[in-house]
Amino acid sequence: SSGINAEYGGFTHVVRLLKKHKKPIIGHNILMDLLFMYEKFHKPLPESFEDFKHLFHEQFPVIFDTRHITSNIKVELKSDVKYKDLIRGTTLLSLFGECNKNSIKGLLYQPKIEDNLGEAYGMREHNAGYDSCLVGQVFIRLAHFYCLWKNSSPNVKPFHFQDYIREFSNFKNCLNLIRSALSHISLTEPDPENKRPQWLIVASKCNSKINMDHVKHVLSAFGDVNTRKIDDYSCLVALPSIGMAAGLLVEMEDHEKYNVQRYEGENGSVTKILIVSVVGISVVFLSALLLRRTL
Asked: What is the pTM of this model?
């Protein structure tokens, strides 16, 4: 039977080997990939959020999300005049470009990476093989920079891969969340506090039906906002910062068409916050895990 499993097990065999040899899994915005991989090549998704965290960590004990790593490094570099603008983007392709500039690629003892991506995958973004190679390079380049930055000694020596893993230990098993009230979830620690502003609710005046396109146009003046229609007369609005929310409330106080106020509904749970204008399979798939039997 072992021979049959090896022949017909497909990618499940790879997943089992990853667990057996405790290899670190590295990805960019990797949560959806892990959910898909777990359900399709291991077993059905767990019923509760806490079970999900426990069982995922058991299956994949070491995970790094380069999106989460990048966000945190950018915050740390803000106080460093020399490097505060080193990393600007957060998308995988933009990070790959920035990591291959001389400011990072030309650093002392930078590992040599054989680059035949274009030849192998035709330089196609979102091709699984191509993206995997990009993620690997971004991880190594960022880790090398971070090790040098943290260990700025004149006697610095070449780093080993385990040095990179050790310096990135604070980012281990933290998975970035897209457009969520939480910046990330941790598979091994309590999740971070919600530092996003409270949702706002926009209601049309004079009992006229709300025009979502017009609402988005009006609110776009305040920055990047996300909306979700509640009914014919109102919608929810999510904003990235507390300051932006406060400014919007002040500026919209006497608007001729809309009333804007803080939303007092239930929005404190990680199982109920992933609602903000994300469409397609990611919502369906993640909701199936986070909302199943919790409402």
From this structure: 0.70
